[in-house]
Amino acid sequence: MAKVVLKNVGKTYSGNVRAASNVNVSVADGEFLVLVGPSGCGKSTTLRMVAGLEAATDGTIQIGERIVNQVAPKDRDIAMVFQDYALYPHMSVRRNLAFGLERRKTEKIEINRRISEAATLLGLNDLLDRKPGALSGGQRQRVALGRAIVRDPAVFLFDEPLSNLDARLRVEMRAELKALHQRLGATILYVTHDQEEAMTLGDRLLVMHDGVVQQIGTPDEIYNHPANRFVAGFLGTPPMNLFEGGVSGLEEKEMMTLGLRPDAIRLTLNMKETGPTAVIRAVEFLGDCSDLHAVLECGATVVSRVSGKSDFKVGDSCVITADMNQAHWFAD
Amino acid sequence: MFNFFSRTASALLIAIAIILVAWAFTRVANRPDHHAQIEGQETLTLMHWSGDAGQEEDAIVADLIADFEADNPGTRIRRINPGDAGSFYTKLQTMMAAGSPPDVFYVGAERLPAFASMGLLAPTPESDFNLTDFYPATVNAFRFNGTRAGRGTLYGVPKDFTTLGFYINLDLFQQAGIQVPTTSWTWQEFLDAALAIGQIENCTGAEFVTWPMMVRLFLRTHNLDVVSPDFEQLRFREPAVMATLQKLRDWRHDRTAYPNALTSGKSKVASGSSVFLTGKIGMAGPFGRWVVPSYRKTNFRWDFAPLPHAKGLAPANAIATVAWSVAAASPRQAASWALVRHLTGEKSQRLAAPLGLAIPTRISIAESSAFIDPAQAPANDRAFLDQANNASVIAWPADARFEAIFQARMDQGLKTGDQTLEQAVATFEKDWSLVKNSPLAKEDWPLVNWARISLWGSLTLIALLTALAIRWWRTRPGALEWKEELWGWALLSPWLLGFIFFLALPIALSLVLSFSKWNGVSTLDHAQFVGLNNYTQLLAHDDRFLTSLRVTLYYALLAVPLGQVMALGAAMLMNSKVRGIGFFRAAWYLPSVLAGVGIAVLWRWVFDGDHGLMNAGLQPILDSPILSWANLTAPEWFGADAAWFGPPAFALMSLWAVGGPMMIYLAGLQGIPQSLHEAAELDGAGRWAKFRHVTLPMLSPVIFFNTIMAVIGSFQVFTQAFVMTGGEPGDLTRFYVLYLYNQAFEFHEMGYASAMAWLLLIIILALTVIMMRGSKRFVHYESLSS
After folding, report:
1. Predicted pLDDT of residue B608
2. How much is the mean pLDDT over chain A?
3. Residue range B449-469: average pLDDT?
4. Which of B579, B683, B694, B700 is best to mutate for the A interface (most A CBs within 10 A)?
5. What gap in Å lies between CA B235 and CA B243, rounded to an integer?
């Protein structure tokens, strides 16, 4: 296992399109780092630069003690799991697992040992002689994982590996991945656009937007102390309510943004309470809770999360109150 | 609302379609040419060609017809001109086979025995023509007595003719100090002149074409021939015949005894009438008058010399001539012969004479200033006329295979010289005896019982349709699906009808024909049933068939792998992301759009032995220090080395069209997910391993498809071979389909050709099945679904 250090890493495509700039992060040995952000934010590009599938135009990439900018992908001691799994369709599962080892002239006995180890770990023993076309999505996902595991690499790279699975399977695989990480103690760089996946899997998250790193931190830090409006709005379902406005009481009159998560906002049908009034436009019942979408007089929409047992109806007028202890203030 | 509009629109579309179809049919049915019969008026169909003189000949015939129509208001002429003589005969055969031949048409004397023996030509009412004004040799050329031409019933009235001789380059004659022959000269004088001119730098004495007619003409001047007048006895084995042919061969190929006497003629382009135009050839022939229009465009002085004769023998000559004939099946005999009288009349011949292409057949016109024009080359017009008196047509057996085999063998024995004369003659004798002794040569085969075949065919079809109908009834759809199904059939119907009438029926017919003997010219009721004889003859006795199969296999063995490797290589290049890749893709694909005859003509020049681009590039490489020790010379692709290099030349040429499969490969390559290559790269695969383990297996279904298509295509080579070599020399480039074409349209063996077509189908089918079976381990269809 090894650490990964990115220093001022950037990627500029021809035509001056900047996919990523100034990425600085140090991934500790055995750490699970999730790169998260909306599509096109540069997270995949960053991962591919670590893999060597794209050349970094700026900065240095260090894996272990080695600067690998000029090292070929196959010599970087990494393994990657692709979104579409990239299994060789004409090869059996066994051959798929063996291919990388054969290329590296690993001994036959050793190959078989590693394959059976990985197959046992992932529950692939009965599938070894099938071809990928005969496998379900989840099974293919496991084979892709197995192909990375048998290589016993210093770093695992995952490029949205779960996004082709259906929702239920995704949750299952998520848990398995987490368990696997703990068992292998591997260094993992994991790209996803799914914030839930990011929060549940990552030891730390790296949030990117427009090619720029917004915040690096533990899920707790990111959720509870978002560094800026983008991070605040990106993480959490439903997203944080953001209100722009001038704030009085400061020396210079400054535009600030107030951020309140839906569970920090409370609606009451008791019109005698003080606070802005709003009309409920939609009620989303989620079982144990409901999300209420209410429109303020000024036209802004507020989302509030309330108990699933409350009896708000569309069209009800209500008064909004907020728990200002949970308020976030952003200056940008 | 929307529903209303879409309904109106579809109703409108259907109405428009119905009106269009109705209009098209009424228009075709009422075409003025066919049916606009005016009361009391008769319509004659006339067909002719326009050869080298193209538009001028077309215009003259049009004028002659206009002239005739002005004089005969009761008759209208529909004129058809399909182009050159080849297309003319193809169309004529089709029209005859359909039972609706043109009333009046050209017939070359060389085709007369074939047509007359099939009973396609009407006898000429001789008393209606003043034949005494015609050169007797030209009239006799159209007589046929059932076995040989030159005597018997007259089947046409000659319109023009030519005698043969050599065209001579006066500048070279002057330079070599040779006297120009005007009235007569001997072969020895001819040879001396050729040797003298051969001494001049870069010049060759003469181009002596070894066309079948010219070889026999050469023998005729020695009072010899290759076959007895009744075509029963071959005369090759007479010592004098062999010696004379050997002499001709030596003049050309014995370079020490006769340096530069004759052109090598090793390749097709290096021979023929156009070689004279280079100005480096002293004499060219034996040619008739037909080359004059093109020779008049040269910038050196030239003239015509009579054909040399053997010492001690009287001069002898041959004529080539074309007549106007009338179809035996024409119901308008009187009007047709009236038209022929007009077309061969003095007025008409006077109009046509200045074209220079041929000599009027009427003595009075030929001897007049209409033909003899001292202002234009050749000055020696007289030589053409003087020879008419000791000329007659060179007759061929009615079976066209005699001439074809003769040509193929003499090509090898005399022209390219890749066989000795002895070998060539022996092969000829064997080939011809196979044709003559074939059970198919019998005339008394029973007629094909078309009524019974139609009956059984219809019964089978009805049974099949009934079975289908019953099956359909069991699973018949509900009302809603029924409507959809009806629409499906309605939209399918144009293609279905086309398939039934233009594909399925002809295919079924050809199957029946493959068991019969039919000349493809007379109507189908003349077809005779021969059982399996076509097939047994082909497989057991026809050496030319086996040769064509061998040539085709040799070609396929080279062209298929070479083409696939090139196409895949090109596709991989075209798959890279470089600036202007669109241009490169188009540039690679473009040649496959530009295929066909024009390109074949260009490639013929590329592979020309003496002047071709290929050898111009190849020879310096062979002469380079690395290879010079081997002392190699670039091959005569379509000449003396054609046995080994002919098919490879075609294989090289086939790379021209590599763009088609390339496009399919490119599409296949782009269908391979990028992530697979990346995964392989991370797995440690280098360039070759990625190609071997990812690209190839992923592409294997595409490779397999392209390979099968290429195999099928390589068995169907025709155009290139037809245009570039015509199968020559000998049969060394006679591809399967070309031989099939020869049988069908030159030898009039439509049944034999049909059998060949069905054998070809079986061969291709077998190959495909073998490839399908053998491919299972190599073709990964999984790559299509992922």
Report:
1. 81
2. 89
3. 92
4. B683
5. 12
Same domain, yes or no, for B299 and B338? Answer: no
Q: What is the least distance, in Å, from the CA of A88 to any CA of chain B?
A: 7
Q: Which helix (H) or strand (E) holds B286?
A: strand B281-287
Inspect the interface and report whether the beta carbons of A90 and B673 lie closer than 8 Å. Answer: no
Q: Are residues B115 and B203 in the same domain?
A: no
Please give the pLDDT value at position B559.
95
- Backbone region of residue B527 per phi and psi (left: phi > 0; alpha: psi in -120 to 50; beta: other values): beta
Test A100 with B684 for CB contact under 8 angstroms. Answer: yes
For residue A147, give both structure tokens: 């192909």
Kindly state whether A99 is in contact with chain B, defined as any CB-CB distance less than 8 angstroms: yes
Q: Are residues B780 and B669 in the same domain?
A: yes
B 665-704 → A contacts, CB under 8 A? 673, 675-676, 678-685, 689, 693-694, 697-698, 700
CATH 3.40.1190.20 given to domain A259-330: no
B624 in reach of chain A (CB within 8 A)? no
pLDDT at A62: 93
Collapsing DSSP to helix, strand or coil, A255 comes out as strand
Q: Shortest CB distance from A82 goes to which of B679, B684, B782?
A: B679
Is B685 within 8 Å of A132 when comparing Cβ atoms?
Answer: no
Contacts of A99 in chain B (CB under 8 A): 680, 683, 685, 693
Q: Which residue of B has its CA nearest to A131?
A: B782
- SS3 label, residue B287: strand
Domain residue extents for chain A: 4-234, 259-330
DSSP-assigned letters across all residues of A98-128 = HHHHHHTT--HHHHHHHHHHHHHHHT-GGGT
User: Using one digit for the tens of pLDDT, what is the confidence trace for B270-304?
Assistant: 557 778 888 888 999 899 988 888 888 888 999 99
Q: Other C-beta atoms within 10 Å of B626: how many?
A: 9
The verdict on A80 touching B (C-beta cutoff 8 Å) is: yes
Give the tens place of pLDDT for each residue, B554-598. 999 999 999 999 999 999 999 988 888 999 999 999 988 887 888
Q: What is the pLDDT of residues A176-192, one digit of tens each?
A: 899 989 988 889 999 99
Angstrom distance (rounded) from CA B589 to CA A224: 61
Phi, psi values for residue A179, rounded to 5°: -65, -40
Q: Are residues B763 and B632 in the same domain?
A: yes
| Full domain range(s) for residue B516 | 450-529
The reply to whether residue B681 touches residue A74, judged by beta carbons under 8 angstroms, is: yes
Chain A hits for B782, Cβ within 8 Å:
89-90, 131-133
Is the domain of B646 the same as that of B776? Answer: yes
Please tell me the total count of domains within chain B. 5
CB-CB neighbors (< 8 A) of A73 in chain B = 678, 681-682
Q: Which residue, B206, B193, B172, is CA-closest to B275?
A: B206
Which residues of chain B neighbour A103 with C-beta distances below 8 Å? Answer: 683-685, 689
B557 and B677 share a domain? Answer: yes
**A33 in Cβ contact with A188 (< 8 Å):** yes
d(CA A72, CA A77): 10
The token pair at B197 is: 């001119």
B121: left (phi over 0), alpha (psi -120 to 50) or beta: beta
Q: Give the span between the Cα atoms of B234 and B532, in whole angstroms.
A: 30
Here the tokens at position B325 are 């004939």
d(CA B192, CA B185) in angstroms, rounded, equals: 11
> Which residues, in sequence order, are CB contacts of A224 under 8 Å at separation 6+?
none
CA B130 to chain centre: 37
A111 touches chain B (CB under 8 A): no
DSSP B485-499: HHHHHHHHHHHHHHH
CATH class of A4-234: alpha beta
Whole-complex ipTM: 0.86
Pairwise CB contact (< 8 Å): B684 & A82: no
